[in-house]
Each structure stands twice: as C-alpha cells, then as structure tokens.
Amino acid sequence: xxxxxxxxxxxxxFEVINGNPNGDxxxxxxxxxxxxxxxxxxxxxxxxxxxxxxxxxxxxxxxGHAIYVQDGAVLNxxxxxxxxxxxxxxxTGDKLTPKDDxxxxxxxxxxxxxxxxVRTFGAVMGTGINCGQVRGPVQMAFAxxxxxxxxxxxxxxxxxxxxxxEKDDTKRSDNRTMGRKHIVPYGLYRAHGFVSAKxxxxxxxxxxxxxxxxxxxxxxFEHDHSAARGEMTTRKLIVFKHETALGNAPxxxxxxxxxxxxxxxxxxxxxxxxxxxxxxxxxxxSDYLVQIDRDGLPTGVExxxxx
Length: 307
Hints:
Number of strands: 15
Shape: flat
Largest sheet: 8 strands, antiparallel
Helix content: 25-40%
Order of helices and strands: EEEEHHHHEEEEEHEHHEHEEEE
C-alpha cells in the first residue's frame, strides 16, 4: 500500500448561527457543553460524519470512495463483500473469520481499498463477520467554542394535526401542538486534527485522499444545512505540513501559533482578558480576529492557509 510521505496537523475554525451544532442525547438534545466553563463542544464523531457525507456527495459511485459507516447500513453485509472478493467459494452465514493471517491482511486491504472512511479514520470490523481492525491515519479532537455559549430554548408550534381527533380537539381548545427547540445564537468553534504519514502506509491513504479530506473540511457544512443546525460554515483551515513522515515539531507547539481573539475596535484581545467584561456577546465572525504566527517556524514545517 502507498501512503503519504509528510505528516500534517491542522486547525479548523467553524461557526454556528442560530442552530444546534451537536445535540447531547443525554441532556434532552441541548447543545453539548463543558459544564465547568460553559464552552460549547462538538464531538469528533459529529465532524467525521460531516466529512463522510461530503465525500459521499462529491465522489458518489467512484471506485474506492464508498462509505462504510452510513445511516441504516448493515455493516456485516459490507464485510461479506470482502469475503466474497477474497474467497472463491460462497461466503454465507452470520459468522465468518479469516482462515489465517494472510487472509486477514487481504480482508483488511479490501476494506481500505474500497471504503474511504476505513482507510481514513480506521474501523473496528469484528461484528460477527470478522474483517479485523484498522487504525486510521486521520484523527480529530473535540471542537470547543472560543468563548462560553448561551443556549436558548425556543418554543415552536405546529399548525397541522396528525389525526381527525387532534384536529377537532385543536378547534375546540384553540390550542396548537407545542414543541421545544434548542439553539446557540452564535458560536465560533475550534477543532484540531492530525494526519499520520506512517499510519497512512498501512491503509493506503494517499495524496488524493488527503486533498479530498481538506476539501471536505472546507465544505462539510455546505450540504448539511437543516432547521436544527442553522447556518454553519467553515471559516478557517490552517494546515501545518511536515517535511518528514514522523514530523518536525510537536503538534501542540504548532497549534499555539494560531490564536483567536475578540475584535475590539480593530485591536486583538484574548477572550477572558481584564477589561472585556462589558463587551457585547459575539454575534458574527467579524467580532473575532485570527492571528497566525508565521515567523520562526520550526525547520521542516510549512504553514498553509487553505481557507
């Protein structure tokens, strides 16, 4: 399998306007929050879902770009495809395991070659029909809002009735079906990601896959608009390219070069600084400034502003 020759680390900034970027099912679908700081959170699983959806739209039907984790998909049937391709005899039954290590390698290779998200994010594929486990070269951390968020609970009504009885009851009581909706008026979120060249060698994640990943990160919200998520947009994508496969500097040192602060009459001020207590809440990307330190980059590291 071929892979990348360079390691990459990246920073993504995205915003939400009057929407719920990632509801928490354990909290009545409220926007995810850090309870100690009230900063908003978006899970890595949610961000990977957006990337998968974009790739499915952009490369639908193209060889090597099928999506393994899909809504309503039966994973074992996708595993069975691998067995049918590797074995000459019919592969039936609910339990299938590799005959030996050589076959296990071929099964994992089939899954990596055919499914974009397997060779990108990896997968655990031991659900009855066993195709093993793949550790993906691309990983993402939870996104966190730059400042604390203030979720709002909005009451909504439904004019239509679901049955004749409900219609008659509504007429008699002059009442409508009520519901609740949670939104964040505005939030700017920051996420970090990592692309391992060494792990890409094992899955075959190559240069074209890397370019598609960055394309997806820049456009992942463009086809994901809904009443629940409101307006979500990727605002910045800053990539650090390492000269070597193992990397030329620790990721956290590179991430520290990207600072996001409040825009106070054109002046950069870090959130939480003294004197910002009476600052109005942010309601647009223009309320923030992004500073990128390009000076004195570690030897062998290139900074690329993709967006």
